[in-house]
Amino acid sequence: MTQVMTQEARPEERPTKPAILRGWRRKCPNCGNGPMLKSYLKVRDSCPVCREEFHHHRADDGPAYLTILIVGHLLAPLLMFVFETWRPSPMVLIEIFGIGTVVLSLYLLPRLKGAMIGYQWARRMHGFAKAG
C-alpha cells in the first residue's frame, strides 16, 4: 500500500540556489545573515541569528575534493599555456604556480564547504530534514 503525502504533511520547499549562494558567502543558508563558520573551516553548532542547527552537517572531504578538482582544472591548462608561450625557467613556474595553487585553494575551500552545507540544508539531507 503506497502512502501519498498530503499538502499539509509535505515540508515546505527550500530553494537550492539561494541556499548554495548563502553558503558560498559563508552565511547561514536559512536566514543569510548569521555566520556559518566560526574559524577558517570550523562550522558553528547553530546560527547565532536564526538558531538553525548545523552540527549534523556531513561536508566531510567533499569540499577538499572539489577544491582539488577546480584548482587542477584551472591551473593545469594555464601552466601549459604559459610554458608553451614564454618558456620560463622551471623555478619561475614552480614559484608562480605554487603560490597560485596555495592562494586559490585557501580561497575556495571554506566557500565550497559553505556551499556544500547550504546544498545539504536545502535538500534536507542528514539531520537538516528534522528542522522546519
Q: Secondary structure elements and their pairing?
A:
Layout: H1 16-24, H2 62-86, H3 90-122
In short:
This protein is mainly α and about 130 residues long. It contains 3 helices and no strands. The protein has one domain (about 15-130).
Main features:
membrane; transmembrane; mainly alpha; 51% helix; Zinc-finger protein; elongated; transmembrane helix; DUF983; 132 residues
Mean pLDDT: 91
Sheet with most strands? none
Number of domains: 1
Q: Level of helix content?
A: 40-55%
Query: How far is the N terminus from the C terminus?
Result: 28 Å
Q: What is the helix/strand order?
A: HHH
Catalogue the unreliable spans.
Answer: none
- Our count of helices gives 3
| Backbone CA Rg | 20 Å
The count of DSSP E runs of length 2 or more, i.e. the number of strands, is 0
Strand content: under 5%
Based on Cα principal axes, name the global outline.
elongated
* Class by alpha and beta content: mainly alpha
